[in-house]
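Researcher: Go.
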Amino acid sequence: MENFCKICGAKYIGVKNCIDMYNELLIYTLSHHDQKFFIHQYVVDAYAAQHASENKKTIKTAFALIGLCLSINYNYTGKEVQNAHIELAKNKKKWPTFAQPKEMAKITVADVIAVAPGNDRDEMIKKWASAVWDMWEDRHAEVLKLVLPYLAIHNNKKYENN
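Model: Structure:
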């Protein structure tokens, strides 16, 4: 039995695999006290982008990368990213295919789970999201083309609501 993920390189903790660690992290984030920031969305997007080769639908990887772009480059909260996903989903279109990058991110779900729950884990989630976004550096311009029309319409609204 392998002790690491073939896709992201995560070292399995005990008998857990990536999806088990991801599910554990989802439970943590869904019960999180800070629902305004909604760190859960960072976890969903980071995992989906890091495991893009498993995604059967192009929208899943595209939305994960859009979410990471908005959170890392534009300081969107997880809730704001979720709202962007809802808005973008209304525009039925064919989403581009993004092949998994050759380089793996330096942080995986296993690294996040290894940190005790609380502020330190929350910070590790943000570092993980950033590391996964960095992994896709060659595709940033393509993702930005998907994000810019949304920002042109909604960015002023974001700052008006704060």
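Model: The chain has seven helices and no strands.
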